[in-house]
Amino acid sequence: MIRRSVDPNIFTYNSLINGLCMHNRLDEAKQMFEFMVSKDCLPDVVAYNTLINGFCKSKRVEEGLALFLEMSQRGVVGNTVTYTTLIQGLFQAGDVETAQEVFQQMVSCGVPPNIMTYNILLDGLCNNEKLEKALVVLNSRSRNMQAELPEFVFLIN
């Protein structure tokens, strides 16, 4: 594209970044992200979510958190996917405290948790023996929404 004087747009860059992340080529994905920025193509929430997800899945959660902070500094607002991805990555890394803080930040910023967010939160709390906190989440959630079967399965297990 570049050789033909066609400038890639955000959709092109997001596709390239996603492909690199899918093949666990995270450093190259980050370089592509930085190249995109250097070409005055500003990253959107999809670009950030893709990289954050890649880093979290590769157990490089700290880099995912750093991207989340950078995202906020650039004025890109995280969405449900952003927060849910970070919460899951933090639980998988064993950082229960930060996972809970990210969930609280999500709620306080007005980003609505979805069923997947709650299931990841409950699963993470139960797997880390925070059953009382899981029950508090479940009770507050069931007041606001219809409770789903997977949540009860997490608690039973």
Question: Keyphrases for this structure?
Answer:
157 residues, mainly alpha, 72% helix, 0% strand, elongated
Give structural notes:
Keywords: Repeat. Pfam families: PPR_1, PPR_2. The protein has 157 residues and is mainly alpha-helical. It contains nine helices and no strands. The chain has helices at 10-22, 26-38, 45-57, 61-73, 80-92, 96-108, 115-127, 131-144, 149-156. Helix 1 runs antiparallel to helix 2 and helix 3 (45-57) runs antiparallel to helix 4 (61-73). It starts with 9 loop residues before the first helix and ends with a helix.
What Rg do the Cα atoms give?
18 Å
Overall pLDDT metric: 88
Number of helix segments?
9
Q: Major beta sheet, specifics? A: none
Run of helices and strands: HHHHHHHHH
Strand residues, percent: under 5%
Give a summary of the structure in a few sentences.
The chain is mostly helical and 157 residues long.
Write the layout of secondary structure elements.
Blueprint: H1 10-22, H2 26-38, H3 45-57, H4 61-73, H5 80-92, H6 96-108, H7 115-127, H8 131-144, H9 149-156
Helix pairs in contact: 1-2, 1-3, 2-3, 3-4, 3-5, 4-5, 5-6, 5-7, 7-8, 7-9
